[in-house]
Write a structure and sequence with these properties.
The protein has 10 helices and 11 strands. The longest helix has 15 residues. By secondary structure, the chain is α/β, with parallel strands linked by helices. The strands form 3 sheets. Strands 2-1-3-4 form a 4-stranded parallel sheet, sandwiched between helices. The protein has a 4-stranded parallel sheet with strand order 6-5-7-8, with helices on both faces. It has a 3-stranded parallel sheet with strand order 10-9-11, sandwiched between helices. The chain folds into 3 domains: 82 residues, Rossmann fold (3-Layer(aba) Sandwich); 92 residues, 3-Layer(aba) Sandwich (Cobalt-precorrin-4 Transmethylase, domain 1), CATH 3.40.1010; 86 residues, 4-hydroxy-3-methylbut-2-enyl diphosphate reductase, catalytic domain (Cobalt-precorrin-4 Transmethylase, domain 1). The chain is 40% helix and 20% strand. It binds iron/sulfur cluster.
């Protein structure tokens, strides 16, 4: 078993918040998938969670979840205006990035976000900045940015610290004053390091996680780069005897959105096989 696998702190906290509302017999709405694991979402839906693509479909006054990767201020204010009751499960690490964007942009800093512009976390953080915001994914991306007197660099929580340092270095010539916020969360990086440590010790890796989970895809890439034969599955039904073949030592890893009950179920089946 990888030393760190499955739910990170923020996802566990969000699932507990959802279960808290549902256990009181309430109905809870989520705008988009609350976590990137279809089996866990199905379990929560069976208990009364409603998942919708658009906030417009939610009836006025309903209880609405703010997911672990947060929502923009505009969306939250719109929900407030429609008298929604909010269950805010924004991860504290994401909240910190939002707060830094709001504070520093209010002080006149142009905000540069390191991350994936399409990711909900980055869109939410963007929504807290007052003034110019640019999203970059690499040091090269900074070349298109103008020179500004004050620049604040803030990272998406799942980025690598070495990349943050490289982007900060690239911004130095473009900023009279540069403020770097290390808002990287170690949870996903720790899961990646745990997979790296399995390299050379196992003949194959069973990787458990949603197909829509970007952090699980990253674990697959790391395992394959380390020479492991990877079987990426969502459920125990996908385990095949053919894959195990003559393998002796099997490693198991899981993404940050994979619940423990699913890991336990799959490990039991592997042991039986
Ligand atoms: S990966 Fe880190 S920032 Fe994201 S939800 Fe998990 S604990 Fe929070």
């Amino acid at each position: 078993m990888a030393e760190e696998a499955g739910f990170c702190f923020g996802v566990r906290r969000a699932v507990e918040a959802i279960e808290g509302v549902l256990s009181e017999g309430g109905t809870l709405w989520s705008i988009g998938m609350p976590i990137h694991n279809p089996q866990e979402v199905a379990r929560l839906r069976a208990r009364g969670l409603n998942v919708t693509k658009s906030a417009n479909e939610i009836p006025e006054g309903a209880r609405v979840l703010i997911r672990a990767h947060g929502e923009s201020k505009a969306v939250t204010e719109d929900l407030d205006a429609r008298k929604m009751r909010l269950t805010d499960a924004t991860c504290p690490f994401v909240r910190r990035a939002q707060e830094r964007a709001e504070e520093l942009s209010s002080q006149g800093y142009a905000v540069v976000l390191l991350g994936d512009a399409r990711h909900p976390e980055i869109r939410a953080v963007m929504g807290y900045a007052r003034g110019p915001v640019d999203v970059v994914a690499s040091a090269q991306d900074t070349e298109r940015l103008p020179k500004r007197p004050r620049v604040a660099l803030i990272s998406q929580t799942t980025q690598r610290e070495d990349l943050l340092a490289a982007v900060a270095a690239a911004l130095v010539p473009r900023a009279g004053e540069l403020h770097v916020c290390n808002t990287v969360c170690r949870a996903t990086l720790n899961r990646q390091d745990a997979v790296r440590r399995l390299a050379g010790k196992v003949d194959g890796l069973v990787l458990i996680g949603g197909r829509n989970s970007a952090n699980t895809a990253k674990l697959r890439d790391i395992a394959e780069a380390g020479g492991m034969d990877v079987l990426w599955i969502e459920t125990s039904e996908e385990l095949t005897r053919e894959w195990f073949g003559e393998k002796d030592q099997i490693g198991v890893a899981a993404g940050a959105s994979t619940p423990q009950w699913l890991i336990t179920e799959i490990c039991s089946k592997i042991a039986r096989m």
